[in-house]
């Protein structure tokens, strides 16, 4: 039986919704219907975490918690936790871009109304389900909810102060490694290393005091995680029922200001006061001349090894409860990772350090039988990374937009594919849309694309889709932007650019029968 299949890359936040951001309601169900009509077998998404800095799915307040912004307001109405009176007047949200600040203010005001009604629920089945959820997830849920509640408390406490003694002390401690704007962001954004020392270092008495004081807020965030989990699993169940698997994504690193670093600082290269010693990024590459300075704290792999990688095992198990297959972002860091001294202005000052390698994956596979992993193997790779990937047998990735550099031996050209065990994409969330990419390349490169594909270039997005489908790759995945023939304005992310990312949304009515039949035709033609 052929393993060949195809699918679409689309993050749930990009779905249509009158509430300003894609959610886990009817639009997600409609998208699954479209996938079914188009004979697609895969829905690939980005990380589902509770986003923090820059609204990036790759920067999250927790490696375990879901993003509350994806909770469907309409499904809360169905659950009798909201009504039309609670909703009131809906702001005029853009259909094409997420305005995160506006969305957060509006949706959280509704979530709090829903929570207040939930507190009075007397249905024994619902209460039991909620209690079971909290108990099943207490290993991360309690710390995460206390962490978020503390952040909110200190943000609120500090918003009407300026140049307080606490601020001056924090500024003095950080002025050699952070500029003033970043210091302000961290202090007034209540990064955990700016909290009072007793709770920052998790003294028992402080944990007990704040847990009592913030009980209602903590329970509010438990409620949000419960509803996110409930709604997401309904969507996943619907997809699986229609023979559609979901490929998820797990960022290798966690955010510096996260529940993970606060509750498990020994797992990271963090000093006693909560500051990173070394941070993550990548050296200069295709995307950036100075590299990418991500700023995530690096793991202390020796500590992870001594605990038999238990935190990582829990993390991957948690993701695999949400998805069927997990793509590990920045796979190369398990062989070697780019370590940048904390306080550096660019990533260019970093150096390569050795990662845990095959030993790590042996432990994961022992603890999670039949684990399904995809290796994100893009960027600056050495031979050892490729050997590790092939030894493990994990599928890698091929990006067609990287193929047309004039080198007939380019590894991304379909006639050079030496195996079938990988996923081919026109582009990913880090690339321009295919139409935007084609418009941006020079005339010589355009001519090369037309000659290699034997096309006019007038329908470049679907020409590249056909190229991906016709390849020997077992799986072909296309960003929805290319299916819809959208230009650079629909790009999801531009690496190295801090603002304006992760905002793409497609309009209601875009998923036409014509688009579905076009994909279904290619599925039939190329045995996918």
Describe the protein in words.
This protein is α/β, with parallel strands linked by helices and 528 residues long. It contains 21 helices and 12 strands. The strands form 2 sheets. An 8-stranded parallel sheet has the order 9-6-3-2-1-12-11-10. Helix 1 (26-37) links the parallel strand 1 (5-9) and strand 2. The longest helix has 27 residues, at 215-241. The chain is globular and about 70 Å long. The mean pLDDT is 96.
Which keywords apply here?
528 residues; alpha/beta; eight-stranded parallel β-sheet; four-stranded antiparallel β-sheet; 21 helices; 12 strands; 10% strand; globular
Described by strand count, sense and barrel closure, the largest sheet is: 8 strands, parallel
Shape, please?
A: globular
Separation of termini? 11 Å
Lateral arrangement of strands in the main beta sheet: 9-6-3-2-1-12-11-10
Q: What structural class do the secondary elements suggest?
A: alpha/beta
